[in-house]
Design goal:
This protein has 3 domains: 151 residues, Chitobiase, domain 2 (2-Layer Sandwich), CATH 3.30.379; 322 residues, TIM Barrel, CATH 3.20.20; 149 residues, Alpha-glucuronidase, C-terminal domain (Alpha-d-glucuronidase, C-terminal Domain), CATH 3.90.1330.10. 38% of the residues lie in helices and 10% in strands. The chain is built from 21 helices and 14 strands. The strands form 2 sheets. The protein has an 8-stranded parallel barrel. The longest helix is centred in the last third of the chain and has 33 residues. It binds 4-O-methyl-beta-D-glucopyranuronic acid. 4-O-methyl-beta-D-glucopyranuronic acid binds next to loops.
Amino acid sequence: MKRVLLFLFLISCSSVFADDGSRLWLKYDLIKDEVYRKSLVKSYNQIVIQFESDKAKLAAKEIQIAFKGLTGKELQINLASKPELGGFNSIKKGILLTIGTDKSEKESEGFRIQSQKGSSLIIGKSEQGLIYGAFAFIRLIQMQGTLDFTINENPKIQVRMLNHWDNANGTVERGYAGSSIWKWFELPYRIDPRYIDYARANASIGINAASINNVNASSRFLTAEYLEKIKAVADVLRPYGIKVFISVNFRSPRTLGGLETSDPLDPGVRKWWKDKTDEIHQYIPDFGGYLVKANSEGEPGPQDYGRTHADGANMLADAMGDHEGIVIWRAFVYDADPDGDRFREAYDQFKPLDGTFDKKVIVQVKNGPIDFMPREPFHPMFGSFPETPLAMEFQITQEYLGHSTHLNYLAPMFKECLDSDTYAEGKGSTVAKVIDGSVHGYPITVMAGVANTGSDANWTGHPFGQANWYAFGRLAWDHTLSSEKIANEWVKQTLTNDSEASQKIVGLMMNSLPAYINYTYPLGLHHMMGEGHHYGPQPWLEKSGRPDWTSVYYHRAAKDGIGFDRNGGISNSLKLYAPEVIDSWGNPDKMDLNYLFWFHHLSWDYKLSTGKTVWDELMSRYYSGPEEVKEFQKTWDSLKSEIDIETYENVKGRLAIQYKESLWWRDACYLYFKQYSGMPLPNSLKEPERTLQDVIELEQIYHLR
Ligand code: GCW
């Protein structure tokens, strides 16, 4: 009897655990809608490649796999009998893959697709464009779109890149989905099949670069031993159009080369980097380049030798010589003046260097001036560097956004920054247009996202974390896409094609970031998370290694009010922006309240444009956050029949944690700020059942050994 029960239990498990999420948005499960599926089956019999090449074959193969999965029918891959063929009407019941002859478009990674049911023409503007075109075609079928369409796409950003903060020992800094996907101890002899899955997933959304190690970099990655391993990874990623970058430790000439200095102006150091760069190219001829975190948070850099960021970056650019690689130099520095305002330190250090960087250098700037807070105003460097290409650095991993337990769809956050107007060259000079080169004519353009991938079966821990990886890639390709459109694509490919269900999920996703901000950092509060772990609230943190690592430095809550006055009170950082921006953010009565305490310190009873006092507005936002999460739970519960059971249960469990922790944030912030405001909760809101001491102790758990 026991055995029978065990057997039944196992059977039920195998059907319960149906989808572990490992296939991401490239599921290719049989299309349920019979009419659509049958029309596909009837329309297509073959895939035709006009010119034989590895990439064309790869693109064709990808369509073949997708078509088989989605319809059950295997399409033949044929080579065109007449190479001059290519006319739209010459394809009979087939999908023709070809390369465009238009020279001006040759270099681009773009593609065109002309499709009528039964004859679809995918024209890559380069070999790589063909791969992107194939994935675009597949996406369309996955979403059960019309087969009669024409599209013409070119990427808006040249280097669309994931930054992995993965360490040599297999851990991931700020990673919440297991350990590193790179198995350094197995490489180069064992190629984990996930490297190929990774390459496919990235190619499907247009990502064409990856820096494979943490910016807090180990010199180990520059040894011959590790270059051989990195080469093995590069060889797997190359066919899909992904170039490998390495994060470097600026002290490597000393630690690896045995030199006495790493001074970028020292001839011996310069020669060391030149030789090292040549050596890397022997392993990886199409090496993407270097990513550098220097003189930031204890990392070594040129300032250790009295040199500038430009001296350091230009030395590496020089080492690159005639190779194609570039140098991406991070602007995340804030060591200048601990008594100043961290908000402006990167600007202050880099602004005098504008125009002094080598043409192979691009400076990578985080979206906001502090550090990937859930909501930051755009970094004031954007729009202020006409002579130095600036790259965008977003964080896909949810360091300050609930790790992998809180559901947080980040496209709206990326978009908010990209769509912000810098007014650099007049109205419409959005951050997006700065980084895509159209405002200042940058010769190099880069958008980077700090990856949220790990060894978890579903890659990102939270199933909805995948949507952030997806959204990052789609926006790097085309920053004009809307967050809703991207969410809809991801949901339809990943969770369900049912239109009512997918609409509900998109709605939930679109509300997720605002809800999170409500229960953590409403009205422009920032940097109040638990020290070190960055999870949960610690607004009372007042002592740390530096004042700007505490919470009180940022919220400035006191008897007289709350907020960081950057409008002349504590600092004048608001002045770094264009007059139009100062105009709007400088006035607490007219501004977007979402940025309020980034720039203003206001009394608790100050009447806001909403008609409420600061205190009442703050509390109503803190209290609405958990209510919104409760709504997400209800919505999710209502979707049970539409979603694969494993994914359903996974998300359900995480939403329950999210609800519990939204109360933690709410209670902690209310109980802490109340000490200063001395004001009661607005009428309808209920007192928490715990005390300030309770929530303080809750945070302390995270520091226990
Ligand atoms: O947000 C901070 C993180 C660090 C990170 C640093 C950076 C890689 O807490 O873990 O280090 O930013 O971006 O360099």
